[in-house]
Amino acid sequence: MTQALDFIFKRRSIRKFTDQPISEEDITLLLQAGMAAPTAMNARPWEFVVVTDEEIIQQLRNSLVFGKHNPAAVIAVCGNTLVSKAKVSGRFWVQDCSAATENILLAATALGLGSVWVGVYPVAIFVRRVSEVLDLPRNVTPLGLIYLGYPAEEKEPRTQYDVRKVHWQKYGNAERAVDIPKE
Ligand SMILES: Cc1cc2nc3c(=O)[nH]c(=O)nc-3n(C[C@H](O)[C@H](O)[C@H](O)COP(=O)(O)O)c2cc1C
Question: What CATH number does residue 30 fall under?
Answer without folding.
Answer: 3.40.109.10
